[in-house]
Amino acid sequence: MNRLFGLIGYPLGHSWSKSYFDKKFLAEKIQDAEYQLFPVKDLSLLKSLPEIYPSLLGLNVTIPYKISILSHLDFISPVAAQVNAVNVVRIIRTGSKVSLHGYNSDVVGFERSIKPFLKSHHRSALILGTGGASKAAAWVFSKLGISYVYVSRNPLGRFQIGYDELDNEILEKHTIIVNATPLGMNPDIHAKPQLPYHLISDRHLMFDMVYNPPETAFLGSGRKQGATIINGLEMLHIQAEESWLIWNDLSFV
User: Fold this and answer.
1) Which residues contact residue 152 at a Cβ distance below 8 angstroms, ignoring those fewer than 6 apart?
2) Which among 36, 73, 187, 213 is most buried, taking Cβ atoms within 10 Å?
């Protein structure tokens, strides 16, 4: 019986994870593993998956479960606990007992993807969205000494502002803009966060965690203003490889 890995979330039509791992297994001649999609509407079904699929050893976690999955796990790594989001689950079987261990590989993927593009004037960031992916970005910025503020449709607390508050002063100061929302994801490729794009300049670095399509409306609008743009494809690849290390007990993030 092949070792089974997969992706849990809902919906999953946007995901390239299965394609990535299928190609990885083929290229690296890994013949005892397969990857499936688990489009689960109700996260309470998580615990039943290892019973239904006895060879299931690991899961990636995507929208909308990166935060809500925390209460369903038996162990959460220190980094994932600090981020308060999990996107990798390692399933450990000891006899008849099954335990679910949560980790966060988004932090590794995001840091390695954005770090080569950071310049001396990139000292403050806007993080669009407040979900699990945004928390990984915030954790990395804290590690790198970059200040940040969340931008939300429903801002709460002093670390969040609304889209209607974005003005020239804020855009001049915050020269990194990270889209951690699903806006612009295929098939709704024309959607984008409601920013004053005319205030963006060539000093801005714009990172979109969406990778399908390769250039979202968010990134396209920034490119037209001269901004440096990065999509989430390399982040996907890095975090996927980190997931593989976690599932094989070679990394703990």
Assistant:
1) 129, 130, 160, 161, 162, 163
2) 73
